């Protein structure tokens, strides 16, 4: 029997229809922090990839990136550069040396604020790279509910194919699951055909059990992806909280047959980090979750480090970051 | 495979650790090794090969140690002892520190060598075996320096013989050598036949750091070499880690030799999962418990007990997890499960499995790729096992776990304890009340709450029941390499307390005739056999008749004591109160007991008074310690505490000395019951009335029935029945050297812990010694409960 059977991707297109809020299910959730930490630590030491395997995995990592610019000082010029990088994420000479030009490696999406949708659409014309737009008063999520719904609708109307929303952390901290559920459900409805990624801002949810429960409520409410962080909290994505969320995704899949995507974001800046997350996905969920429809990195500087590593794979020499075109 | 293919299938691919430096090291040594004796490597001879079990490749030739080698090594160790033990703690600490540092500097070489020789995955040798070994030396460097402060009444034992297994070659070496050196002992260590290489590299380090010659001697070889160590009379301590079978042989061979002994033997450790556990984490715990080191771990969690309400889902999830394990080249960094240590081990596991499956159970073998050659076995789960199946009862020592369900916490405890072993246990529940209720109830030396297979130098490790005795690591581990200073002053008992054979003068009848019965289960009962015998006192005067107990009376006594095991769960305050009450009631009848002592032997009233006074004082002393001889909290280097609890051993059989018929018995009873052990006492054979009179003191002091059982009669005969009884968990024997030996030999059936006087004069009148921790440590066993925390 083959060690790593490639699972068929047949049913991954089935979109989450949303389910009723099941409080009993929430109540049964138990998360043991020390054990999660031990597993998270071990995942990284139990698996590694070398040589051509490393190159292939890193190329795959690029295809999983939501190339992101979510800064208060973003401008059209900055977004143009982001789009340019998305169109050519790796130097051509490196791709040639690795003989992978025809893989046409591209990031999974670009992730931006609403005002830059128009620029991005224009820059990415003909590339099939979707635009993800953060909405619902990112990063705090505390604008009037109607405003937030309107923000989603406007973003979709402007051309966003994916909507990254933020949840209101207070609902989690106060155990107001019904309120959280209703909001996310409404967001999903507002997003229509655009895929909905729900940002939990795990760094502000205090406990692994809260994170697990919030993950589950978002999935019940119809999220297509659950995402760790806005990148603006004090604590960003890490393997421990990711493990918690990924296990809830597995639980949800085992119960409903629906595959939900996962997006760690914030602070993932090295090729090694990226591989760690990919090992986590493969070990806990399987190869299906190493495809862009079920797994994304929210990152920007990560790409530069991966490129540098790929250069090493291609040439056997260590490169330097300023040799890689700026994101 | 090219990049484009891998881009699609995302396989891991090979990632082998480079073994070149380890192989170079073997070549530099001519791939031939011999012993490290008295600071020098001897000439290789009697060679046998050591191989890489993953591919059968011969790594080097090893010398099989002969009797002469052992004699030479012991000579060296003996010669080195005086100087080494006299070094200041700081000096010894510096050597231990240097050892730690130099293993650390060569950490990867050690790791690769270990993996080559043993077959364990490089991830484990690199991340577990070697760092834990290094930590052990650092930790004990500290103890070396502080030994005089921490253990003022103790001294090193002398030359120690240490025999270690093949599953954790360097780590087991560290566990043995570090505390022994810290305490000031010198050492003969024999690594396992399959895995001698890391010990030989270690020997080179000892040489390089300038460890004084003879302090550490490494002699390689097989079981025969080991037996020369066990039998050498100048070796004062044997420490063995290995199978229960060999442990029993060692116990038998060392019986009556006055050698200190610690045994770390087999296990069949339960892994309990309650419905309120973090199930996914518990699944990962199972991986750490049974698929660590191919399951070749004495404390492997090999019996999975899952609450019935989550049993099916747990088994389903576990199977899915098993399919993700990678079995293969141990040097590959992405390997989870490597090669078993030898082909004989593979055959043993497979034959057990075949035999066990005939007795029942459902087999699931992980759907993983297995190399065609080498000693590989797929991770296997046998679910729906029954407690009578040999796969449930016997140690498999391979990557095989058996599973069954339980309904309630009490049933979980009953199943967990349904074993001859008692090494470790894992308890998974997010309910702290439940977890902390289970931990003391499970008979095991190590309990991991919401974790598995955790080790640290600061936390004692060792077993209950047939998993052995003695601890390695922590404060409690140091005691295994120290002896109380008073023991070296003990003289050999010259006068045998022989029973007078003279015919005697008939007793004067001036009182009402008294019948001294036996005391079993809180009642005075007639002896089963219906016989009694005359007891003659001072001037050979007949002073009465004592009941002659027989083996059935011992059986009844032990049964009563086992029913009273709950004594160990009573509060320490209550136990103290009862001991105080015994003292109080004895005090009421001082004169009477004193007169009885005079009547029984030729002692002056002053001495008799003193014996009674001291008996009262002793009861008082241990009443006072009942609630003070408590445990420790260790601080391992993870976010966890380890609670080292002093737990009672269980039923203790006590054979009191013939001399000091009251004080001798009380000196042994008091610490035993203070620590929560019910006892069965065989009093002084020729002066038994001191204790038969004591029944009334027991009856008036609120001692729960069965806690103290007293059976008079023929000491040698009765003590053997006690020593052989599987329901007796420890035996203490004060008496002749020859009988001491017989007693210790008889303990092998259930490996009960023993204390024997070996015909030495223990001074029962010496309050400093007799009220010290000496018997308290023998009345308790340390359980370490690991409690990780964090929200």
Structural write-up:
The complex is a heterodimer of chains A (327) and B (791). With 327 residues, chain A is α/β, with parallel strands linked by helices. Chain A has one domain: Aldolase class I (TIM Barrel), CATH 3.20.20. Chain A is built from 13 helices and 8 strands. In chain A, helix 7 links the parallel strand 3 and strand 4. The termini of chain A are far apart. The model of chain A is unreliable at 1-12 (pLDDT under 50). Chain B is an alpha/beta fold and 791 residues long. Helix content of chain B is 41%, strand content 19%. Chain B is globular and about 110 Å long. The mean pLDDT of chain B is 96.
List strands and helices in order, with pairings.
The complex is a heterodimer of chains A (327) and B (791).
Chain A: H1 23-27, H2 33-46, H3 51-63, E1 65-68, H4 76-87, H5 92-98, E2 109-112, H6 117-123, E3 131-134, H7 145-158, E4 162-166, H8 169-173, H9 177-191, E5 195-199, H10 208-220, E6 225-227, H11 239-256, E7 261-263, H12 271-284, E8 297-299, H13 302-315
Parallel strand pairs in A: 1-2, 1-8, 2-3, 3-4, 4-5, 5-6, 6-7
Chain B: H1 3-9, H2 20-28, E1 32-33, E2 36-37, E3 40-41, E4 47-51, E5 58-63, H3 67-86, H4 89-105, H5 107-118, H6 122-150, E6 154-156, E7 159-163, H7 169-183, E8 186-190, H8 197-208, E9 216-218, H9 223-231, E10 235-241, H10 244-254, E11 260-264, E12 269-273, H11 279-290, E13 301-307, H12 308-322, H13 343-358, E14 362-365, E15 380-383, H14 390-393, E16 400-406, H15 409-416, E17 421-422, E18 424-428, H16 432-441, E19 446-449, E20 464-465, E21 468-469, H17 474-478, E22 482-484, E23 518-520, E24 523-525, E25 532-536, E26 542-547, H18 551-563, H19 572-588, H20 590-600, H21 605-626, E27 632-634, E28 640-648, E29 652-655, H22 663-674, E30 679-682, H23 689-692, H24 694-699, E31 708-710, H25 715-724, E32 730-733, H26 737-746, E33 753-756, H27 767-770, H28 774-778, E34 780-788
Parallel strand pairs in B: 1-5, 7-8, 7-10, 8-9, 10-11, 12-13, 12-18, 13-16, 15-16, 18-19, 19-34, 29-30, 29-32, 30-31, 32-33
Antiparallel strand pairs in B: 2-3, 4-5, 6-22, 11-21, 14-15, 17-20, 23-24, 25-26, 27-28, 28-34
């Amino acid at each position: 029997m083959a060690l790593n059977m490639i699972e068929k991707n047949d049913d991954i297109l089935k979109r989450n229809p949303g389910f009723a809020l099941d409080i009993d299910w929430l109540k049964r959730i138990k998360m043991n922090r020390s054990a999660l930490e031990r597993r998270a630590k071990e995942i990284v030491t139990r698996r590694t990839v070398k040589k051509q395997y490393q190159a292939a995995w890193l190329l795959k990592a690029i295809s999983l990136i939501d190339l992101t610019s979510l800064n208060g000082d973003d401008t059209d010029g900055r977004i143009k550069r982001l789009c340019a990088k998305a169109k050519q994420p790796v130097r051509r000479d490196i791709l040639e040396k690795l003989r992978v030009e025809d893989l046409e490696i591209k990031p999974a999406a670009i992730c931006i604020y609403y005002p830059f949708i128009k620029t991005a659409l224009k820059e990415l014309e003909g590339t099939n790279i979707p635009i993800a737009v953060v909405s619902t008063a990112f990063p705090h999520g505390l604008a009037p509910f109607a405003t937030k719904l309107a923000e989603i609708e406007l973003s979709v109307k402007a051309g966003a194919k994916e909507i990254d929303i933020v949840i209101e952390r207070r609902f989690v901290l106060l155990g107001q699951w019904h309120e959280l559920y209703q909001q996310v459900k409404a967001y999903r409805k507002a997003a229509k055909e655009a895929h909905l990624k729900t940002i939990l801002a795990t760094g502000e949810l205090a406990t692994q059990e809260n994170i697990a429960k919030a993950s589950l409520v978002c999935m019940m409410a119809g999220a297509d992806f659950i995402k760790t962080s806005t990148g603006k909290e004090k604590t960003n994505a890490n393997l421990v909280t990711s493990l918690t969320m990924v296990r809830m995704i597995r639980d949800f899949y085992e119960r409903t047959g629906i595959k939900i995507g996962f997006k760690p974001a914030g602070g993932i800046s090295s090729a090694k980090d990226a591989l760690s997350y990919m090992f986590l996905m493969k070990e806990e969920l399987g190869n299906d979750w190493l495809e862009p429809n079920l797994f994304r990195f929210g990152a920007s500087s990560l790409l530069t480090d991966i490129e540098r590593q790929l250069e090493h794979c291609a040439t056997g020499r260590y490169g330097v970051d300023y040799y890689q075109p700026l994101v | 495979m090219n990049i484009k293919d891998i881009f699609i299938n995302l396989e891991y691919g090979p990632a082998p650790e480079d073994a070149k430096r380890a192989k170079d090291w073997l070549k530099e040594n001519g791939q031939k090794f011999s012993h490290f004796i008295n600071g020098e490597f001897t000439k290789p001879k009697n060679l046998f090969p050591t191989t890489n079990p993953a591919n059968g490749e011969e790594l080097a030739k090893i010398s099989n140690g002969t009797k002469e080698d052992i004699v030479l090594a012991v000579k060296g160790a003996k010669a080195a002892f005086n100087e080494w033990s006299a070094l200041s703690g700081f000096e010894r600490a510096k050597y231990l520190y240097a050892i730690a540092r130099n293993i650390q500097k060569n950490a990867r070489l050690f790791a690769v060598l270990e993996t080559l020789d043993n077959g364990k995955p490089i991830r484990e040798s690199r991340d577990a075996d070697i760092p834990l070994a290094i930590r052990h030396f650092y930790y004990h460097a500290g103890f070396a320096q502080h030994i005089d402060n921490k253990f003022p009444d103790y001294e090193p034992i002398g030359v120690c013989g240490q025999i270690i297994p093949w599953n954790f070659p360097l780590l087991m070496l560290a566990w043995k050598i570090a505390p022994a050196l810290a305490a000031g002992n010198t050492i003969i260590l024999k690594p396992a036949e399959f895995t001698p290489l890391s010990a030989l590299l270690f020997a080179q380090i000892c040489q390089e750091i300038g460890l004084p010659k003879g302090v550490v001697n490494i002699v390689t070889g097989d079981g025969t070499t080991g037996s020369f160590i066990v039998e050498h009379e100048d070796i004062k301590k044997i420490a063995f880690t290995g199978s229960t079978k060999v442990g029993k042989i060692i116990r038998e061979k060392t019986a009556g030799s006055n050698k200190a002994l610690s045994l770390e033997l087999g296990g069949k450790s339960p892994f309990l999962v309650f419905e309120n556990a973090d199930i996914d984490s518990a699944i990962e715990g199972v991986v750490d418990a049974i698929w660590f080191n191919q399951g070749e771990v004495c404390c492997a969690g090999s019996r999975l007990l899952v609450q019935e309400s989550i049993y099916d889902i747990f088994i389903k999830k576990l199977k899915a997890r098993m399919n993700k394990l990678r079995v293969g080249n141990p040097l590959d960094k992405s390997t989870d499960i490597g090669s078993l240590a030898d082909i004989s081990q593979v055959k043993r596991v497979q034959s057990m499995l075949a035999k066990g499956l005939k007795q029942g159970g459902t087999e699931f073998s992980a759907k993983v790729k297995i190399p065609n050659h080498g000693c590989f076995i797929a991770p296997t789960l046998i679910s729906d096992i029954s407690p009578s199946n040999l796969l449930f009862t016997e140690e498999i020592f391979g990557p095989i776990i058996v599973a069954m369900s339980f309904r309630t916490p009490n049933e979980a405890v009953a199943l967990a304890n349904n074993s001859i072993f008692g090494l470790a246990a894992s308890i998974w529940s997010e309910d702290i009340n439940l977890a902390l209720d289970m931990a003391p109830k499970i008979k095991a030396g190590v309990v991991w709450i919401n974790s598995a297979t955790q080790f640290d130098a600061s936390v004692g490790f060792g077993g209950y029941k047939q998993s052995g005795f003695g601890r390695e690591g922590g404060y409690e581990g140091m005691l295994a390499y120290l002896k109380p200073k008073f023991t070296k002053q003990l003289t050999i008992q010259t006068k045998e307390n022989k029973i007078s054979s003279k015919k005697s003068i008939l007793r004067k009848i001036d009182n009402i005739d008294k019948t001294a019965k036996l005391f079993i289960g809180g009642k005075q009962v007639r002896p089963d056999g219906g016989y009694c015998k005359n007891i003659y006192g001072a001037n050979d005067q007949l002073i009465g008749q004592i009941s002659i107990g027989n083996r059935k009376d011992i059986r009844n006594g032990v049964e009563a004591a086992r029913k009273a095991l709950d004594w160990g769960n009573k509060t320490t305050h209550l136990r103290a109160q009862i001991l105080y009450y015994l003292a109080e009631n004895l005090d009421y009848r001082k004169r009477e007991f004193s007169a009885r002592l005079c009547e029984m032997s030729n002692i002056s009233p002053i001495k008799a008074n003193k014996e009674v006074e001291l008996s009262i004082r002793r009861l008082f002393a241990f009443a006072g310690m009942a609630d003070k001889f408590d445990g420790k909290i260790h601080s391992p280097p993870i976010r966890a505490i380890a609670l080292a609890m002093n737990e009672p051993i269980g039923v203790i059989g006590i054979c009191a000395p013939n001399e000091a018929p009251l004080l001798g018995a009380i000196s042994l009873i008091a610490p035993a019951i203070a620590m929560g052990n019910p006892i069965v006492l065989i009093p002084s054979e020729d002066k038994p009335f001191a204790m038969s009179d004591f029944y009334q003191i027991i009856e008036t002091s609120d001692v729960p029935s069965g806690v103290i059982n007293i059976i008079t009669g023929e000491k040698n005969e009765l003590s053997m029945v006690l020593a052989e009884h599987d329901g007796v968990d420890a035996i203490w024997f004060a008496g002749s050297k020859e009988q001491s030996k017989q007693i210790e030999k008889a303990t092998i059936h259930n490996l009960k812990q023993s204390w024997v006087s070996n015909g030495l004069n223990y001074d029962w009148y010496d309050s400093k010694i007799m009220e010290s921790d000496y018997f308290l440590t023998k009345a308790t066993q340390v359980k370490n409960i690991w409690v990780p925390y964090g929200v």
